[in-house]
Structures are given as C-alpha cells and as structure tokens.
Amino acid sequence: MSVARQYGERLEQLTLNGLAELGGMRELVRALLFDCGQDDVIDAVLVADELGTLACEYGDLPATVRVARSYQRPSLRISVSAPHLALPMSPSRARTSRHVLEACTAAWGIGAEEGGMTLWACVALPSAAAWQDAERDGFPEQRLPVR
Fold first, then answer.
1. What would the CATH number be for the domain defined by 2-129?
2. S-S: 82 plus which of 33, 35, 59, 114, CB 3.0-4.6 Å?
3. How far apart are CA 102 and CA 14, in angstroms?
C-alpha cells in the first residue's frame, strides 16, 4: 500500500510472513531512496533488514512494516509491529542488533501497542535534497508507482 501524506511524506506498508519476504522489503526501501547516495541507501536497507529479521525471528507473525519517507526533512522512518515481539535473549545477538541500530540511525526505539510491540528506527538521509517546492506538493519529480 502506498500513501502520499501531507507535508512531503510517502508511506509504504507491507506485511511480513517470514524471512523469505525480506527481499521485497529491501527493494521497497531502495525504491523510496532513488535520489539518495549509496551510503544512505546501504544504511537504510541494513536497518530495515535488521528490524524485519528481529520481527521474523522473535515475534509472532505476520508483522506489519511501515516505511515513511520524508522529503522535506530528508529521513526514512521504518517501523515493524508484531504480536508478542520480544528482543533477542542471546547477549551476542542483542549486541549485534544494538550496534547496527546505533551505528546507522539517528534514533531508534521500542514501543508497546495494543496487540503487540513496535520496533522503529529513523535514518537520516544527508545525501538527499530537501524538497520545498509547493507546486510539486513536497515530492520530487520521480514518483513511485501506486500499488
């Protein structure tokens, strides 16, 4: 599902039913970052993959993935929600996840919601230009196809 939101944001949502669907999530993130540099894309894909993997391995599926791209303040917010989502109990796995999130994001966190937990992260996109042209409603020229 693709939604254009006010203030120059685009929201994409998909459902993860297992690790095999992580490739589709990575493609979605890459498509949203068409105007970004390689380092920003790599960071965002790595973070999305980490959050999706945690949901698949430590949560009850299906998991809902939301990816929001802000064009006015260049950033990408990724959230993964699943029922009974828990963080890794293995100290080495927990350290790896924390290291990825702290190294590649501007902020990240965990929140409880009705019916489950949400892991979220915000990736800054310094290579993307801020889009402020009101005539284009805050979006760059190239638009993503509505699915």
1. 3.30.565.10
2. 59
3. 25
